[in-house]
Amino acid sequence: MPAPELIRIVSRDSPMALAQVGRVRAELAARHPATVTEVVPVRTTGDKWMGDLSKVEGKGAFTKEVDAALLAGEADLAVHCVKDIPADRPLPAGTTFAAFLERDDIRDALVHPDGLTLDRLPDGARIGTSSVRRVAQLAASHPHLNCVPFRGNANRRLEKLASGEADALLLAVAGLHRIGRPDVISEVLTPEEMCPPVGAGVLALQCREDDMLTIDAVSTLNHPGTYREITAERMFLHVLQGHCNSPIAGYATTHRNGDLSLRACVFTPDGKTVLNAHEWAGPLDPATLGTSVAVTLLRQGARELIDSIAH
Question: Among 128, 119, 121, which residue's Cα sits nearest to residue 147?
């Protein structure tokens, strides 16, 4: 089937989101040189609202306007960070994932103006982050540090750090690379030190499910290993039915022999309770692996823990 002559790509309008679209356009151009791509930037509720995300539909606040443009026919392809796509409910009716790009770095980075590492920060140091996942894990591992709410895109957060609104920041390694600022990284935290969010480092390409011409063209960008990892991770999160105030983390790993494993955690916001699970797929398919890990955590009390958190 021939590729479409034009693909209109809708995305958030932040510098990072537009850089991500740039990657998609470059990969499409390499595979379909005759196809022209155009960018349709939109401002999402999550980008405009600087308060508690639970008051504006949680993570769906970063995807609602993008999905609406796709469904309205104003664009043919949406680019999302997988970590921003809610997994406790299905994709908007009439849309589907056409591809997951090869995964970037899943780790978190500490940004400190003087290059200090997390273990060298003094008591009471202010860490800028609004991620409940990061707050809970810092409370567990470094209770002497103070987290202060920090919203806004990565560039804006770096500006706020420079103005003294915090002493250090936690940001995604992949995001800092996408905006061309890996130079600010003081320390890269291992997944064992800071368990990543579901979908970390992955871009999802979403189309209308009846647009087979675009789906066929875009599906050539799909990375099979990443697809398996994300299938496991999102099924895990779906079964848990966590909300935006739930400190949940998890990541799947494709090992050298091709085996898949999934490590996941559920925390109380104060970090005093941590539930852990780590399982290998073996004969299980990725979705069944995700379900199995979720059930393991539910048996440990994850449902009661999640439901006890206000949202």
Answer: 128
> What residues does 205 pair with on adjacent strands?
79, 99
* Beta strands across the sheet bearing 108-111: 146-148, 126-128, 168-172, 108-111, 187-189
Does residue 201 contact residue 174 with C-beta atoms inside 8 Å?
yes
The answer to pTM > 0.85 is yes
Residue tagged active-site, from 47, 67, 76, 84: 84
Active site residue 47: no
* Cα separation values, 222 from 12, 102, 128, 178, 198, Å: 21, 7, 34, 19, 18
Beta pairing partners, 266: 248, 275
User: What confidence score (pLDDT) does residue 304 get?
Assistant: 95
Q: How many residues does the chain have?
A: 311
Task: Give the model confidence (pLDDT) of 203-250 as tens digits.
Answer: 999 999 999 999 999 999 999 999 999 999 999 999 999 877 889 999
Measured between alpha carbons, how far is 188 from 282 in angstroms, rounded to an integer?
31
58 pLDDT higher than 80? no
pLDDT in tens, 243-293: 778 899 999 999 988 899 999 999 999 999 999 999 999 878 999 999 999
Listed in sequence order, the DSSP H helices in 163-285 are 173-178, 212-218, 224-240
107: how many CB neighbours lie within 10 A of its CB? 18
